[in-house]
Amino acid sequence: MNKIREVLKEKGMSQTKLSARLGKSFNMVNLYVANKHQPSIPTLYQIADILDVDVRDLLVSNKK
């Protein structure tokens, strides 16, 4: 699971803009945002770079 949706909202960036900067289709980015498909590790790092956040900010901790 990831927190891409939350970080996009915090940064004021649309899925369309992220998809363009990432070089992925809007549909693929939408799947990432909806947690229906998880990005590869390199793609996750690209997303973190585009959003100017630490990659850990995009991940959901499973620690309880």
Quick structural gist:
This is XRE family transcriptional regulator. GO terms for molecular function: DNA binding. The chain has a single domain (3-56), classed as 434 Repressor (Amino-terminal Domain).
Protein model, in words:
The mean pLDDT is 95. The chain has a single domain (3-56), classed as 434 Repressor (Amino-terminal Domain), CATH 1.10.260.40. The two termini are 15 Å apart. With 64 residues, the protein is mainly α. Helix content is 55%, strand content 0%. It has helices at 4-11, 15-22, 26-33, 41-51.
How many domains make up the 3D coordinates?
A: 1
Distance between the termini: 15 Å
How confident overall, as mean pLDDT?
95
CATH superfamily: lambda repressor-like DNA-binding domains
Shape: globular
Give the low-confidence spans: none
Radius of gyration from the CA trace? 11 Å
What structural category characterises the helix and strand content? mainly alpha
Order of helices and strands: HHHH
Number of alpha- plus pi-helical segments: 4
Number of strands: 0
